Amino acid sequence: MTPKISWTSKFYVCPGSTMACPTVLIPGLLRGSVGAICAQAPLSRLTPSTLRHLTLTSIMKSIRKTDHLERTASVVRREIVSAAKVCGAANESPSVKSLRLLVADQDFSFKAGQWIDFFIPGVSVVGGFSICSSPRLLEQERMIELAVKYTNHPPALWIHNKCTLDSEVAVRVGGEFFFDPRPADASRNLVLIAGGVGINPLLSILRHSADLHRERANKGIGYKIGTIKLFYSAKNTSELLFKKNILDLVNEFPEKIACSLHVTKQTTQISAELKPYITEGRITEEDIRDHVSKETLFYICGPPPMTDFFSKQLENSHVPREHICFEKWW
């Protein structure tokens, strides 16, 4: 499968684009009860009219402010808007907060690497956040996970300063940056290149790949994953998100998954556990060049200069454009 070009944590609180016009809401979106999954507090359903008002108001104001919805207006997104409830939260780094959302709507689904439009009651601006969890978590527990960096953008401010357990929001899936192979597709190697919070969609792809590998190992059927190499750069080790999750996968599948963690402004001592995986300095062209092959797909998500640099270098290394997938968020 050749994808389109374009861009667990500590949760114990809750047991248990052609342009697609983002204006159409379908009555009867909310099917199923949250109470069966989140026993502490059943989700009071947002009515279709409430969702419609929230979505249309946010769309108009977001577009006027050249915000997420305008920047992604030409990107494929689903028409379904689903209610969700915050069931867990954690500080992943000094500047990043992660959320776990319960989405009871059985019609809600996503592909590893995609993002959501994030509608907040009382906040006129729509957020756009990549999902960092695997589709398998949604299938099994009706949960998705996000990791949001603190900024002055209203949705990020709300998540960091006002969001509480049981806060109700609405979400809609979009994006052309994903890895979604079919069982009969040819095996591919993956190289994932992340900068900062650009790790989010790549972690979703990494987790999905691990799920596919487990399924094939356990059942003898399904997509055959090639090797996966993650290159991940951040300012320092405290800003490397989901370190434990990443290393757990590396240790679970040492023959399949490897990682190279880069820090650019490290001022403290690096822990013994992390040290074998850490390189001080940016990810380089030479790091990536060794992994170029006709069987390899490259996924890049990070600051625009980083994304532009590696996509250009890969083209110069004669990697087909359809094998270079990237996402830009800021």
TrEMBL record:
Statement: the UniProt record of this protein carries the keyword NAD: yes
Ranges for domain FAD-binding FR-type: 68-182
Entry GO MF terms: oxidoreductase activity
UniProt keywords, alphabetically: NAD, Oxidoreductase
PANTHER family: OXIDOREDUCTASE NAD-BINDING DOMAIN-CONTAINING PROTEIN 1 (PTHR46505:SF1)
Record-given protein name: Oxidoreductase NAD-binding domain-containing protein 1
